[in-house]
Amino acid sequence: MKVAIVLNTSWNIYNFRLNFVKALIEQGHEVHTVAPHDDFTHFLEEVGCTHHDVKMDSRGANPIKDSALIFELFLIYRRMRPDVVLHYTIKPNIYGTLAASMLKIPVVNNVCGLGTIFLKDNLVSKMAIWLYKIAFRYPKKVFFQNPDDLAIFVDRKIIPKGITDLLPGSGIDLSHFTPTAFKRNKEFTFLLISRLITDKGILEFIEAVKDLKAKGMKAKFQILGAKDPKHQRGIPVSLIDGWIQSETIEYLGTTTDVRDFIQQADCVVLPSYREGTPRTLLEAASSSKPIVATDVPGCHNVVRHQYNGLLCKLKDPQDLADKMFEMANYDDSTLKRMGENGRTKMELEFDEKIVVAKYINAIDTIKG
Fold first, then answer.
1. In a 10 Å sphere around its CB, with 0-12 CB exposed, 13-18 middle and 19+ buried, how is residue 246 labelled?
2. SS3 string of the chain?
3. pLDDT at residue 285 greater than cutoff 70
4. What percent of the chain has pLDDT over 70?
5. What is the mean predicted confidence (pLDDT) over 142-166?
6. Model confidence over 75-133: pLDDT tens digits?
7. How far is CA 312 from the centre of its chain?
8. From residue 346, how far is each of 22, 279, 304 by CA, in Å?
9. Angstrom distance (rounded) from CA 139 to CA 88
10. Cβ within 8 Å of residue 121, ≥6 positions away
11. Calpha distance 336→182 (Å, rounded)
């Protein structure tokens, strides 16, 4: 079969779905990737994909501007003539599905996370929900990354329950993210891995750090991730630079391989407002690191309170600070046990092989 995989960045396909792509190719499928051209596009071509460049802005949402994607993807699909199209992220899910429906091409979608669209009540969110309702009349299958998001779509009658299924996010490659021998840092080290946008709870993290430092806590507070001031909810560079200069946080910049940074931390933190299934938490848990995260959809699917981490209240810097303080004051055996519990949870629930098998089954059903 000719299988098209459509996403908002080539980086995303390469970093999160490469093993799935390889599995398709090994089964004899012809894989076409559709995404904006970036530094990772050539890696996809090197493993055997045929790539198609598309213009797509991953920042923000403007339904009027973004609707041009329908025409662009329609032309790509008409030229390519895939047997099935797999869409990921909001814009491909909506505009790609509409384009494919005009050509009667079967579609499998993946709702990777709702972002803040369903948390707000404004014109953009109403428009997005309306577009979802129109587009989601056509897919053969729609995968969700957590039961909370699935329930919202079914309860709001955006999609019939019969075509839905759950996936453990994009899964985690357990052979790539592996534990090392437990070792506690002399200065307890917290690591937040994320783009610097407000939805990820960056501002709450900063407030929590300031509170902990004011109370005399001696620890390292690190942030690893790209500055993204052009994002609709991006944090101004001047503000970030102020945190760095005042030594509120240690900014680690960006990397193509997070494993060393995770291994050198004692705890990974993510005070996000909402997630699909946060990749950074899968990576942390697979590496046997305890976690502090918000008790919100996505995060609380990965973290079980007091089992492999601690859950804090949404948008509550004080509660976040309290949970970070609690984590830093655990003894070594508790930290080690939490990390081991996280690894066990990944092996049982989030193995990447589960994701690949479900997709292969969905494609085989369409083929059959």
1. exposed
2. CEEEEECCCHHHHHHHHHHHHHHHHHCCCEEEEEECCCCCHHHHHHCCCEEEECCCCCCCCCHHHHCHHHHHHHHHHHHHCCCEEEEECHHHHHHHHHHHHHCCCCEEEEECCCCCHHHCCCHHHHHHHHHHHHHCCCCCEEEECCHHHHHHHHHCCCCCHHHEEECCCCCECCCCCCCCCCCCCCCEEEEEECCEEHHHCHHHHHHHHHHHHHCCCCEEEEEECCECCCCCCECCHHHHHHHHHCCCCEECCCCCCCHHHHHCCCEEEECCCCCCCCHHHHHHHHCCCCEEEECCCCHHHHCCECCCEEEECCCCHHHHHHHHHHHHCCCHHHHHHHHHHHHHHHHHHCEHHHHHHHHHHHHHHHHC
3. yes
4. 96
5. 93
6. 999 999 999 999 998 899 999 999 999 999 999 999 987 765 666 677 777 888 888 99
7. 20
8. 22, 12, 12
9. 12
10. none
11. 7
pLDDT at 59 over 60: no
Among all chains, which residue has been given the structure tokens 């995060």? 299
In which region does residue 213 sit, left (phi positive, over 0), alpha (psi from -120 to 50) or beta (all else)?
alpha
Q: In the numeric block, which tokens belong to residue 115?
A: 């972002």
**Who contacts 275 (Cβ-Cβ below 8 Å, separation ≥6)?**
113, 146, 296, 297, 298, 299
Question: What pLDDT shows up at residue 128?
Answer: 80
Which one, of 262, 289, 272, lies nearest residue 346 by Cα? 289
Phi/psi for 85 (5° steps) reads -120, 130
Two structure tokens written together for 223: 């942030």
Report the pLDDT averaged over residues 57-68.
67
In degrees, rounded to 5, the angle at the alpha carbon of residue 98 between the alpha carbons of residues 102 and 149 is 150
| pLDDT tens track for 297-338 | 999 999 999 999 999 999 999 999 999 999 999 999 999 999
Q: Which residues pair with 85 in a beta bridge?
A: 4, 107
